[in-house]
Amino acid sequence: MRLLLVEDDARIARFVAKGLREQTYAVDVSATGDDALYQAAINTYDLVILDVMIPGRDGFSVCRELRKAGQRVPILMLTARDAVEDRISGLDSGADDYLTKPFEFRELLARLRALLRRSGELRPAKITVADLVLDTGAQSVSRNGQTVPLTAKEYALLEFLARNAGRVVGRAEIAEHVWDETFDPFSNLIEVYINRVRRKIDADSPKPLLHTRRGAGYLLGSAVDLSPSDGAEDAASARLRSKANPPSRKNHA
Fold first, then answer.
1. Averaged over 34-58, what is the pLDDT?
2. Edge-to-edge strand list for the sheet holding 97-100
3. Residue 98 is inside which H or E element, if any?
């Protein structure tokens, strides 16, 4: 999930962004209303956290502009202004929720989860793809009952693929939702993480779940819909995994 955090207080922005990234969110940070509108115009976000008191256009104005532009992304107002009139103004401007500073970070996370559940489709607490199970609350993964240890970024990538299980997801879409604005589109970072995740979830299983569609992207799911070329590429990946982890030989001497 990729979020836009609009906050001009550098200390608060660092604290919130760090906490969100530790929860596997990709986070872009804007300090002004104009920059927030620019970032929202050129990037795809799953949610916007928007402070009201920001330089230039304030949060109310930014919120109205986003809605005027047809942006349906969930917006959480985050501000020190706790008057009822301010909360009403924020909601009437198009915000979906309102959180007053100071706040407990756990409450911020809970409100984000609630907004993400309400946006578009229902986001289940557990995602199951064949014998692969993701617990989105605990951010844990198991396959065939065995725990699969993943880093935060590996988990974020796998969760995005799992939420889109059964369809091909391209590099651009992965970059938009799993990485932030610092991502270099010319790097092979996505391929590196795909291979890491593939090794971890498919290494001990005769039925791979993470497949490569040459020239299109990646698909998480069973192999029933794979074309012959896709199957050949997955077979090549399996051979590479077997070379990286050769079976031990028994000494019969």
1. 93
2. 26-30, 2-6, 47-51, 75-79, 97-100
3. strand 97-100
DSSP 209-242: -EEEETTTEEEES-GGG--HHHHHHHHHHHHHHH
Determine phi and psi for 184, rounding to 5 degrees: -90, 110
How far is 148 from 146, CA to CA, in rounded Å?
Answer: 6
pLDDT over 60 (residue 244): no
- pLDDT by residue (tens digit) across 83-109? 777 778 888 899 999 998 889 999 999
pLDDT tens digits, one per residue of 128-183:
999 999 998 788 999 999 999 999 999 999 999 998 999 999 998 998 889 887 88
Three-state DSSP at 22 gives helix
| Helix H or strand E encompassing 135 | strand 132-135
State the amino acid at position 73 in one-letter form.
V
Domains and their CATH numbers in the chain? 2-118 (3.40.50.2300), 126-244 (1.10.10.10)
Query: In 3D, which of 117, 108, 136 has the Cα closest to residue 18?
Result: 108
Instruction: List phi, psi (to 5°) of 30.
Output: -120, 145
How far is it, in rounded angstroms, from Cα 200 to Cα 216? 23
CB 55 within 8 A of CB 34: no
> Residue range 46-74: average pLDDT?
93
pTM for the full model?
Answer: 0.67
Token representation of residue 24? 């596997």
Q: Locate 212 and state its tokens.
A: 């490569």
In this structure, what token pair is assigned to residue 96?
Answer: 């979906």
